Amino acid sequence: MEKVSEIFIIKSENSNILTDNIEEPVHEIEAEALLKSKEIYNNSILFFEKSAGLDIEIIRKIVFVNPGLVIILFYRDQIDNRSLSEFFKEGIADCTMIDDKEYIQQLIDRYGSGSDESSVNLYNNLINKFVNIGIISNSLKMAEIFSAVEKVSRSSSSILISGESGTGKELIAKSIHHFSKRNGQNFVAVNTGAIPENLLEDELFGHVKGAFTSAFKDRKGKFEYANGGTIFLDEISNMPPALQMKLLRILQEREFERIGDNTKIKVDVRVIAATNKSLEEMVKAGEFREDLFFRLNVIPINLPPLRERRSDIPLLANYFVKKYCNINGFDPKTISMSAMRILKEFSWPGNIRHLENIIERMVVLNPDAHILSPKHIPEEVVTGENEGGAVDSDISLIPDEGIALNDILRNIERKYIMQ
Prior knowledge:
Elements: E1 6-10, H1 17-21, E2 27-28, H2 31-36, E3 44-49, H3 56-65, E4 69-74, H4 81-89, E5 94-96, H5 101-112, H6 117-131, H7 140-152, E6 159-162, H8 169-178, E7 187-191, H9 197-205, E8 206-207, E9 219-220, H10 222-225, E10 230-234, H11 241-253, E11 255-257, E12 264-266, E13 270-275, H12 279-284, H13 290-296, E14 299-302, H14 313-328, E15 334-335, H15 337-345, H16 351-365, E16 371-372, H17 379-382, H18 393-396, H19 405-418
Parallel strand pairs: 1-2, 1-3, 3-4, 4-5, 6-13, 6-14, 7-10, 10-13, 15-16
Antiparallel strand pairs: 8-9, 11-12
């Protein structure tokens, strides 16, 4: 496909949501014009709002007449999977409920800037592979990481995953293991920051009977359990210097000794480490071994914080709503557009884990609510800091059905008269 030539929109009456969020020149058009025009709209993109009244039959006709037209569905409210499936069967390329300039530009770039049909299919297939193993994203940044994960999973090289807490480092580590030739063997996760220093060595390497007072029998460590598979060392920055040396030896020699034993144990283990700190800065400060850093950092993967992939917030939020409705046996719930806007504006310092906790709280504390609106969002999110400053709580709490402005003004006037 050549670079996109034109962008068309079919919008609902009195709606400017698409024109406000597309920065490039657009042409408003009616469905009938697309069907009757003798012009062939190849290399063009059509955004249409579901509320504009286009049904499956009309989409089928548009696709038939203009097979080179990329069609993207925009919807304001939740849409059931059956309806979405029907639209995709008839040939739409994508769908979104996100009124976000950055994300809509991503769609334009994805489908119109020199991408051929096969590359678009590869992108969608890649996204779906990770959705199937529980990693939800539709952002270009994460697509690049997914592509890297697929490539590095074919090797046995050490990997260092960096990123803020809650960005999904362990999920990415699991996905590397899942797509690798080691996926039939154990994936062993160790949070090195959560285990006391005097117990961590035993946890990793095990011991033999009599090695210390309470060692009544031999015990395998995590490295033995991971033999043939993958070991994931989270919060590697907290590993004590003495254990850093032992880990370096495993990476170099592929062998270690249990506590209290001189027998060398050979292991074939892929090591994936993760950190929420800068190991490079720790090396400069003398807090982390430089040689170990280079051994771990053979393949670096840096995960972006959630505030840098805001287009994923609606996807994740809806996924967590469904998850916790199912867990608690609640009827299905949806998130209103105004509530979703607040969730998107929040900076999420705890990233995906933070978002999940907030959504769980909203679901559990409001079992009878079918629509989760701004009033159901915890105050710290509504008034919290974000890239544009604090959300104006008076504005953000306006209900989706709107307000009776004249009544409010009359009440204000009455209040001041009485004063």
